[in-house]
Specification:
2 helices; 38% helix; 3-stranded antiparallel beta sheet; extended; disordered C terminus; alpha+beta
Length: 135
Amino acid sequence: MNVTATELTSFDVDPAGLHVRLHMRDAAGAVHMLVIPTDGLMTLLMTLPDMVRRALRNRYQDESLRLVHSLEDFKVELGEPTADGQRQYILTLATHGGFEVAFSATRDSLDSLSGAIEADTLSQQAQTHQARRLS
């Protein structure tokens, strides 16, 4: 059965955590429900960003488009060590609207991220100083 939803109205989670139910409405106002097992939800979560990226690019014919969220908050927590004993951290990024995603990262990965941000900051400062000299 093919249902074209016009609105996602709500969702609920099975008390045992085995599945979620997505409640939606079609153009005629009829209510429909899609039940997804939790394992399927994990797969959907991993594919949604690519779906949105492709939809934006197809809609606007612009390969540079992507969905970008404003970072509101972050936290870094100590995680479990890897099998080879390397310390892991959990980096959680959150938006104002409540969207949150967590990544597992090694110290080297976090240092690399920090270095990339610092290098960009230094590059921007150098450009600002150079622009001041030219004026």
